[in-house]
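FAQ
Q: What does a multi-component entry look like?
A: The components come first, one per line:
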Amino acid sequence: MAGVPLAWYLILSAILFALGIAGFLFRRNLITMFMSIELMLNAVNLSFVAFSYKFGRVDGQIFTFFVMVVAAAEAAVGLAIILAVFRTRKTLAVDEIDSLKY
Amino acid sequence: MDTFLFLIFAAIAVGCGVIVVSQRHPIHSAISLIGVMGSLAVLYLLLGAEFIAATQVLVYAGAVMVLFLFVIMLLNAGVEPPGGKSWPVRLLGIPLLVVLLGVVSFLIRGWIPVKETVVFGSFTGGGPRDVGGALFTEYLLPFEIVSVLILVAILGAVVLGGKEID
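Then the predicted structure of the entire assembly, as tokens:
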């Protein structure tokens, strides 16, 4: 049975990562920028799993597992920070959130 | 069959990824991000990572994205206003981006392994038993550290998100 070249998975991972970078740079909404970071983490996870397949070892999947855990923790803390920022500034536009204290 | 499934779900992932980046409304971005994560879970299954595929659906598409949607609805986040870009940015931005991506892909073309192919079912070491076995023996210390990290994240989220009582 003909398989899919491993390179296609890596190229897909690179495309998703580039989309994540583009979203992070182009979007001016705090939440959308945060979602772009999640997209980048997912792209990296895909190449971890692809290389786990290539080497026939489970280590890459363990790393994917840890990345997921850290991403979940990051999402919880990051969204709490976004909530706190919105409570004081009443805005989510990053261009207007340019001073650290007030 | 493998190629077929890969192409379908890769197309869904890239299409939803483009929507995540291009939509101005955060809700649309969040829903498309769930699409990306779901199709990535199918690709993990094709790569033989069953446990990771299940975790992807449960943790990412389930928990994390529900958190995102709750925050978007809680903050009542609307359409983001168009940013004021200067005319060189408007004119040159997209062509320069295409040139940059072209040069980068030309440079890394030689490093990508060409010969390897992925056949569904030829790697079976990704079930819960295998992942758990590695997690609780070889990777026990990182696992314990990560559990402390999760605890700290919970406390941090409660402290940051809780109402301040004067």
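Q: Is there any commentary attached?
A: Sometimes. For this entry: Residues 127-166 of chain B form one domain.
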